[in-house]
Amino acid sequence: MAFTIGPQLLDCCVLAVLSGGDTYGYQLTQQLRLRLDVSESTLYPVLRRLQRDGLLTVYDRPYQGRNRRYYAITEGGRQRLDLLRQEWNRFRDGVELLLKEETENG
């Protein structure tokens, strides 16, 4: 059984990866795919939305005769990431508590 990844959690994961440094789309996808079942077709709309919302910026850099698009987290993106991490911790703790209680009571 697989759990689905909601938009806020995916935003949080993308921003978390970018908080470690600028990266290009394919590399970002590969880093996320090491831990999550996410496709490039899912990721690129998220990147465009985060850019539109001012949470990341985009720039191109030449690589082997063509341009590679890089993504960088903004200060607003870092603030959003902090908020999302706090919300995630509350959510995770609540789910773990529920699952633990169910095990103990059942």
Describe the structure.
The protein has 106 residues and is of the alpha+beta class. The chain has a single domain, classed as Arc Repressor Mutant, subunit A (Orthogonal Bundle), CATH 1.10.10. It is built from four helices and three strands; from the N terminus they run H-E-H-H-E-E-H. It has helices at residues 7-18, 25-33, 40-52, 75-105, and strands at residues 23-24, 56-63, 66-73. Strands 1-3-2 form a three-stranded antiparallel beta sheet. Helix 1 crosses helix 4 (75-105). It is elongated and about 65 Å long. The chain starts with 6 loop residues before the first helix and ends with a helix. The mean pLDDT is 92.
Q: How many strands in all?
A: 3
Discrete helix count: 4
Supply Rg: 16 Å
Strand order of the largest sheet: 1-3-2
Q: Roughly what percent helix?
A: 55-70%
| CATH architecture designation | Orthogonal Bundle
Question: What is the first-to-last residue Cα distance?
Answer: 21 Å
The major beta sheet can be summarized as: 3 strands, antiparallel
Structural class: alpha+beta
CATH class: Mainly Alpha
Order of helices and strands: HEHHEEH
Oligomer: single chain
CATH homologous superfamily label? Winged helix-like DNA-binding domain superfamily/Winged helix DNA-binding domain
What percentage of the residues does DSSP assign to strands (E)?
Answer: 15-25%
Annotated CATH topology: Arc Repressor Mutant, subunit A
